[in-house]
Amino acid sequence: MEIQQYMQTLGQQARKASRAMARATTGIKNQALLNIAAQIEESREVLKQANAKDMARGEENGLDAALLDRLELTDGRIDTMLEGLRQVAGLADPVGGITDLNYRPSGIQVGKMRVPLGVIGIIYESRPNVTIEAASLCLKSGNATILRGGSEAIESNQALAACIAKGLEDAGLPSQAVQVIETTDRAAVGEMITMPEYVDVIVPRGGKGLIERISRDAKVPVIKHLDGICHVYIDNDADLAKATNIAINSKTHRYGTCNTMETLLVHQDIAEKILPDLASVYTSLNVELRGCEKTMAILPVAIAATAEDWDTEYLAPILAIKIVDDLDHAIEHINTHGSHHTDTIVSENYTKSRRFLLEVDSSSVMINASTRFADGFEYGLGAEIGISTDKIHARGPVGLEGLTSQKYVVLGDGEIRK
Amino acid sequence: MEIQQYMQTLGQQARKASRAMARATTGIKNQALLNIAAQIEESREVLKQANAKDMARGEENGLDAALLDRLELTDGRIDTMLEGLRQVAGLADPVGGITDLNYRPSGIQVGKMRVPLGVIGIIYESRPNVTIEAASLCLKSGNATILRGGSEAIESNQALAACIAKGLEDAGLPSQAVQVIETTDRAAVGEMITMPEYVDVIVPRGGKGLIERISRDAKVPVIKHLDGICHVYIDNDADLAKATNIAINSKTHRYGTCNTMETLLVHQDIAEKILPDLASVYTSLNVELRGCEKTMAILPVAIAATAEDWDTEYLAPILAIKIVDDLDHAIEHINTHGSHHTDTIVSENYTKSRRFLLEVDSSSVMINASTRFADGFEYGLGAEIGISTDKIHARGPVGLEGLTSQKYVVLGDGEIRK
């Protein structure tokens, strides 16, 4: 009951602050971002001390090395935060722009104005730099934010929250425009995702388990993706050099990212020509290959893929390979087994490329480019709060515009409806 | 269990048909719309016979006169359906357009392609013409649809479904692109709103109770509005003639529509000047006036408003009137008590009008125009499936574009990520 009241209070404060944020001019929002950077710069030692407490507690609690690494706030990472804040200050303000303002026969002018969403709840895990990334994007897009970081980073996040509050106040904005939840009680998340009167949208960042749980229980819209089961389809009309480069880059540029290829589809007419060379590159990079029966016949190095492989996001140096009959077979496989994230065709054929673009039902569909490009920075959004594979609201990499909505504006001169 | 299986089958068929619909060319979709019109024209007598069965059963079951009127399929209403189908065929196809296709430093071109949502579930009450309206908008926007009409209209809806199926087939599209649920079992709704694997979005049309129930239980996004508590704010810098026209039209043009004004806000400095004349017009039109204390002092005809009045959608010839201190007070009242639907300021003052436009958090915000303009046709959308007061996805009147999403498209020439 106490936690419920605490979250309700945070929600009310956020709703109130969101009104001031929606009104805030671009100049004032940018000033707040630069103020926060200045506060962090000044508080370097305080931040590192707070982080040291988190690290010590994490070690005591037996966190594994990977988690401890993500938790650590080094000078380099603080510099990256500062750079991020300055970059967001430099981005165009998405709020207030009016588009498609046209006269109607009745005499009224009708257009659409871009407006903030209101209050955004962010739920994330150990990395404390997400506190600054998320807060800066929500601030720039005119939203109020409630942040819920991992319990293992609570000291670091509270220290960062103090810098944010000071930066907002110094710019004349309400410090409650960004609130970091002060308790590690897990019930806080349950409350936050079920108060639609105070929270307009939830952005969860973290493992699939966390995101599934939140999506299931939320009474508020959730901007999310669960899996990144991305495909490269090498068509029989592919340029072999492009196909090789793209297939290698899409898998091996980084293994743990959501836009990494997990399944390679190859047209049956080109498989014998391209697969042996490709396989030797993968093998030299220690990528384990799992293939369909036809693939096994061409690549002795491959082990047999099971039905489960086609639905698996490995996030590891493992690749599933399937030989398909034709384009239809490839599209059918992607739409059935993919996660609607990012899929590429490699082909020189106009008609087949065009069909792939139209018919693959994913948030990013590519021709002759690496799946690794599916990213807010690479797309020119300037920043990214996450990637959405849902069809409602933002889809694909979500930047500042994805944190806004639109409202209709009508300019009249006394018109009434006949 | 049987109904669950039935709905799962409908869902699977809809998902499959949605792929064909997403690929369908503009010409074929338009042909299907015109085919459906031709089928309805040919089946006039069959439709009227089916409708007569619904009417007879309705009378037996003691439906009230208003419901029976909405249920009836007259020749005039059939003509309106035909006209609607032809109009939708004439609208621009929202699907496939690519916007903002720009080069990035990496060499790739990134843009956004407009795509159908997939499968749309529509839940509505007695009027059988909604079957055609909803089906035609979903068809034109490249979606598959599952329609659930009122049980009192089941015979009429099945007869219309047969026309739709024939029209689709004759155009070479899958008849399962539009499926009308054949059972009146209420459990079908519960199933439909909880199968996100087959249904992408739900559009409920009907009373507030229905929509609240659906929103609460749905595991699928819902495009909706609950209330239309719309305001007109007459500023002290208002043109009196414009203010009078707009205040009268916004309330009395139609009483039962969601964009009708329910509360009139008047600046204290202009109240004595404008309210008596306005009140006499309202009174002559038999509109009951309920006022705040200050209003009561000016208008003896008004009865005392209670706290509840400010939060009530009357849908009737009743108007709440409140005298406010200033613009801030008006905006605060609207954002607190309104339903984020449609609100108008009447003012000649630039700065105050601009602030109202920016700060009122509603799906339609107007200057010097009647709230009654908040409508898909008046806004130039060509048609309307409903009005959304949510901030996620479509907001305000929802036309064809609101039934679509976007995906990123990337055109490359073999680029890989460095």
Automatic annotation (TrEMBL), chains A, B:
PROSITE patterns associated with the record: PROA (PS01223)
Entry coiled-coil feature ranges: none
Molecular-function annotations in GO: glutamate-5-semialdehyde dehydrogenase activity; NADP binding
This enzyme's EC code(s): 1.2.1.41
GO CC terms of this entry: cytoplasm
CDD domains listed in its UniProt record: ALDH_F18-19_ProA-GPR
InterPro entries the record matches: Ald_DH/histidinol_DH, Ald_DH_C, Ald_DH_N, Aldehyde_DH_dom, G-glutamylP_reductase_CS, Glu-5-SA_DH, GPR_dom
Record keyword Oxidoreductase present: yes
Swiss-Prot/TrEMBL catalytic activity: L-glutamate 5-semialdehyde + phosphate + NADP(+) = L-glutamyl 5-phosphate + NADPH + H(+)
Compartment(s): Cytoplasm
Database matches in HAMAP family: ProA (MF_00412)
NCBIfam families per UniProt: PRK00197.1, proA
Name used for this protein in its record: Gamma-glutamyl phosphate reductase
Organism encoding this protein: Oleispira antarctica RB-8
Gene name linked to the record: proA
